[in-house]
Amino acid sequence: MPPTERKLGFSQLRVGIFVLFGLAVLAFLILNATGDFNPFEKTMSLKARFASADGLREGADVQLAGVHIGKVDAVRLLPPDSPDDAKIEAIMTINQTLDGKPITDRIRTDSTAQLVATSILANDKMINITPGTAKGSAVTENNVLDSTSAMSINQLTQTGNELLQQINKLAIPTNEILNKANQGEGTLGRVINDESLYKNLDSAVAETRTTVVKLQTTLDKVNSGSGSAGKLLNDPELYNSLNRTVEQLESISKDLRAGRGSAGKFLTNDELYNETRAAVRDLRESVNNIKPALEQINRIAADVNSITTDLNEGKGTAGKLLKDEQLYNDARDSLAKFNSTAAKLDVLISDTQSGKGTIGKLLTDETLYNNLNQTTSNINQITTEGTKLIYDFRQNPKKYLTIKFELF
Amino acid sequence: MNPLKKFLFELQEITTLIVHAFIGLFKKPYYLVDLVKQMDIIGVGSLPIVLLTGFFTGGVLILQTFPTLAYYGIQNEAGRSVSTSLIRELGPVLSALMVSGRIGSAISAELGSMVVSQQIDAMRALGTDPNRKLVAPRILALVLMLPFLTVAADIFGIIGGGIVASGLFNQSFDTFLTSVRNGITIEDIIGGLIKPLFFGLIIGSISCHKGLSTTGGTVGVGRSTTSAVVLSSIVVIIFDFFLSKAIQTILDVKPI
User: Fold this and answer.
1) Interface test mutation site (partner B, options A4, A8, A17, A23, max chain B beta carbons within 10 A)
2) Residue among A2, A162, A270 at smallest CA distance from B6
3) pLDDT band, residue A182 (cuts 50/70/90)
4) What is the pTM of this model?
């Protein structure tokens, strides 16, 4: 039974105090075991400045190369006159030790703070600090880290959207082109659908191969020194003769320079030059004389031009000849008729040649000719006879003209 | 008496009560008949309210989460949400709260009236330790029966969820059961069965203490009954938080 209430002192509540203390320690240990609740952990604060918080909230994760080391304590706007890439300041509270070593071994003054998205879907951000190198010195309390901002999903989707629109624009003509190509229209369509190109290419390649083989053999021959090309490459004789020629040329040029011979005089003597000048002067005068002739020609050309315009407009006979289709049509008809006539003639002639019909026989059958010949020779004979007869008749007309006067 | 001293005094009294009851379990005479009788009253007697609570809790969980899950197209995983939340958290806590309402009040009222009518004093005078005869069987019965009641509540919660899913949302019961199985891990079940052991101890010790420390006649009985239910419910919920944290850490429960 409990003692009376007034007399109760702390000394009589030892069990209660002990149990309460035990429960408190147990609760603390339970919370501390997962590492979420570390009231005795020493922390330090660092700062990073960004252009925009863009989803960064108080309590967001702070990671060192992906490992959780602290939290964002506050996100603050900087004064309005601050530079564009540092409009907000995030104050991070990070643990002073990591795996028993001071965090300043890893976070150096050359570490950078990146604003990165926690997931693709959400726009929540956290800060990732890159590990520093030995070049930098250890960070101190309230150090402002250099910052870079990773591309947010919003920016990414915006860029992607623009890209998609461009692709869409591109896709419509591409589709049309591909459709046409599928149907075999145009060069591309032929390239895709027609096999002849492939065959041509294939035969071209085969030909090329044989050509290359031939070239190879030719080159082999050339190398071995046979044929003209081989001699050109391998025989020193040409070179020697060329060399000799060049030497001779050299001596000729020397002579020329010295003014020997006609060519030398041509180069060195002024006389020829003077004559040439006089000739040029004469030529100039002739040109001046030619000028009026040219004007005349010009006028003729203008006339011809006007005639041509008339012709173009179809005036006059020649114009009609050019412009009026009647003549052309007539000519066409005539030609057609001529053609048919010619064809008929052709048939006729071929018939004739083969000996059909009268004319054919006339041409091919020799009997008529023989008969005619015979007849002609007969006629000839008759004519000679006739001639003789007439001659005879003239000589002795009495022979024939016996007029008998018979009187009763 | 200042509140701090009062709180410490209560804590001390409850601790000594538990210790005495625990020691009394291993000493003759064993009050096995009392234990069985209390198990019947506490366990079997509380079954209907616990089953009803579990059934409708599971049903309302599906009712509230199914449209949201369907919005994201994962309504086939609706059973997972019910099984995880019921087995990990709602089954133990809701059964403990129902039992503290029904049994905690009964224990403190019974013991309080015995104190008021001086039956406890008479018992002590006759050489029977009320801690062993009255307190130990009640606490032990609660510690033993509450896990069973929790399991019953879990099962009926899953059944209730399944009925709502198939009846109201036209999801096949097999789909629901498959996702329930996917949601349950052995760590969840072990953690869900460790919690009611502590809850039984809390409800029993607080209710017995409140009953035995009743003063002020029949009015005091009512006061101690109310405070027993309120205090045990609050302590159950507070302990639930720390127990969950401890179980998560010790059993390394993976988030689903």
Assistant:
1) A8
2) A2
3) confident
4) 0.55
